[in-house]
Write a structure and sequence with these properties.
With about 260 residues, this protein is of the alpha/beta class. The chain contains 9 helices and 12 strands. The strands form 3 sheets. A 6-stranded mixed beta sheet has the order 6-7-8-3-9-10, with helices on both faces. A 4-stranded antiparallel beta sheet has the order 2-1-4-5, with helices on one face. A two-stranded antiparallel ribbon has the order 11-12. β1 and β2 form a beta hairpin. α3 packs parallel to α5 and α4 packs across α5. The chain is globular.
Amino acid sequence: MTLELKNVTLGYPKKTVLKHVCMELHTGQTICVLGKNGSGKTTLFKSILGILPLLSGEILLNGKSVCRWSRRKFARLVAYVPQARSLPFPFTALDVALFGRTAHLSAFALPARKDRLIAEECMEKLRIDHLKNRIFTQLSGGEQQMVIVARALAQQPAFLVMDEPTSSLDFGNQIKIIRQVNELKSESLGVLMATHSPDHAYMCGADVAVVHGGELRSCGHSSRVITEKMLRDVYGVDVRILTISGGGGEDGRKICMPIIA
Ligand code: ADP
């Protein structure tokens, strides 16, 4: 399956955010989206999800325009982990994970035992099953984030769009998410993930898309796209890209080390 952006221009009625974006995400592929704050990552994701109408161009899911998919069918294939989470009612964490099953239920049907088991399994996978009966609004930001990821996994989608899923997580939970993304890749999911850390792209063996200056500046293999020059241009900092041994991969793993003068 493929999610394809064809010459898409996106933004808001009075503000164009990104112009002429062309990108393809296949199942089994991970793309990390890099770009400084305000560069358009969230706007890109909301446009892909049909939350924001496109200014021009077309987004295709399996060859069919996203706006022609019914919301329910689309949600069976594409799940979203948003940045902001506010739930007005005191649901338990398991209830929140169960919301992920909604797209698979017929209208007015309640979740069945099977749906509950799937939601529980997703929480176990993320090692947050101990939070099952806790009230979502009383969880820490990081715990809430993990529950939202469990909700998206319970949706059993073909594509997962994650907007900075690690931003409020401690170091251990960040690594858990990275491991989970790698597992999803091996299960043939397509993952599009915004991150502030180029190292996450290395850890996920991901391709990289860079949004900068109102356009998709480059998209491709991390070794080609993540360069010291790109990091300086985009983030305005000096970074050395080093290769370390013992970090995974035959030739070692790359890491980005900022130069603190
Ligand atoms: P990122 O996710 O990369 O931090 P965003 O996609 O949130 O960036 O924002 C991209 C640009 O769009 C920013 O300049 C932001 O101020 C602007 N923007 C975000 N939401 C709106 C909105 N509802 N109306 C107009 N402009 C917006």
